[in-house]
Design a protein that fits this description.
alpha/beta, Rossmann fold, GMP Synthetase, Chain A, domain 3, 7-stranded mixed beta sheet, 3-stranded mixed beta sheet, about 40% helix, about 20% strand, binds guanosine-5'-triphosphate
Length: about 325
């Protein structure tokens, strides 16, 4: 049997729906999702294998302008861009409810000029708008994209190869659409030996995914600004007598944030812990005992060593 295997980078602005798309393609929850932008902090590899083909999907932090934001945001952007060097296919996601933006133009210009492989535009969240508005949204994105594409082509700087309908309309909430886009993605993979086993789901250790599940609850339960200053570190992870014992520390940037995370008489931390435990039990398919602690590490989002220690974020050397 001739095998196929390739990397698929999921890129787009924060909140475009990349993690939800990854989970839908894999048919299981791997990447964390919230309605706040920049939930994804690191690249996450999801492995999808079917018949002779393996697609290695890389979910990335949403690409965003980082002026005035902590060092962490610059590293997040670099991590997102770094996946281009490995990718055989880039899926660039645009939320159809938000439409095309100047930032999409900026990021896509870079991709069209630098990326020497296949590009597919996906217009996401089509279930959120009326049918007649979906077509309008598609045309708006298409027209703006074509202007950009033709301009770059005319200047002789085009490197990328477009595939499929541009943009392809999808909703991660509609399994039948995900099935057909998944088949399309698999069909675009180059010939090559599989890099992961048939049953592998990710390259990330179980501890990483569990820390992300706890962080997801923090993102969901706290207000607008605070979650960006928070990391989760797993201190203990052991299976004993059919129970998984997990002890984790929630890292915050300042004393005042510690109080917010803990809440009145511990109520917020208790609620985060309860929801996270339910989610962890579903993910691990085991009973979970979860303990959470909160620690202050001033300035961690600005410090490259602490970014690596608490968020497993390292600055890639070969990114722009
Ligand atoms: N109705 C609907 N909601 C969606 C769809 N895709 C994503 N969402 C929602 O959009 C929000 C953002 O989705 P994410 O998957 O976290 O977006 P992301 O691009 O990974 O975001 P970042 O982590 O900021 O990069 C969440 O509330 C999702 O539930 C979709 O196809 N339909």
């Amino acid at each position: 049997m001739i095998k196929k295997c390739g990397y698929v980078a999921l890129l787009g602005r924060p909140n475009a729906g990349k993690s939800t798309f990854l989970n839908a393609v894999l048919g299981t929850k791997l990447a964390v999702v919230s309605n706040k932008p920049q939930t994804t902090r690191n690249k996450i590899l999801g492995v999808f294998t079917e018949a002779d083909s393996q697609a290695l999907l890389l979910d990335t932090p949403g690409i965003h302008k980082t002026q005035g934001l902590p060092k962490m945001n610059q590293v997040m952007n670099k991590v997102a861009w770094s996946v281009l060097s490995d990718a055989d296919l880039v899926c660039y996601l645009i939320d159809v409810t938000q439409g095309w933006s100047n930032e999409d133009a900026l990021w896509l210009e870079s991709i069209l000029k630098k990326f020497e492989n296949k590009l597919l535009l996906l217009a996401t969240k089509t279930d959120k708008v009326k049918i007649e508005e979906v077509e309008q949204g598609r045309l708006n994105i298409l027209n703006r994209f074509q202007d950009l594409f033709e301009g770059i082509k005319a200047s002789g700087e085009l490197k990328c190869q477009l595939i499929g309908d541009q943009p392809q309309l999808i909703s991660s909430k509609r399994p039948e659409e995900i099935t057909s886009i998944r088949q399309f993605i698999l069909s675009q993979m180059p010939q090559g030996e599989w890099l992961y086993g048939e049953d592998d789901l990710t390259d990330r250790p179980q501890r990483f995914v569990c820390a992300e599940i706890i962080r997801e609850q923090i993102f969901r339960q706290l207000g607008q600004e605070l979650p960006y200053k928070i990391a989760v570190v797993i201190d203990l992870f052991e299976h004993k007598n059919n129970v998984t014992n997990i002890s984790a520390t929630v890292i915050v940037d300042r004393d005042s944030q510690k109080g917010i995370v803990i809440g009145k008489r511990g109520s917020r931390l208790k609620s985060i812990g309860t929801e996270a435990r339910i989610s962890l039990e579903k993910h691990l398919d085991k009973k979970v005992f979860l303990e959470l602690f909160v620690k202050v590490k001033p300035g961690w989002t600005e410090n490259i060593n602490m970014l690596s220690e608490f968020a497993d974020l390292q600055e890639p050397s070969d990114s722009k």
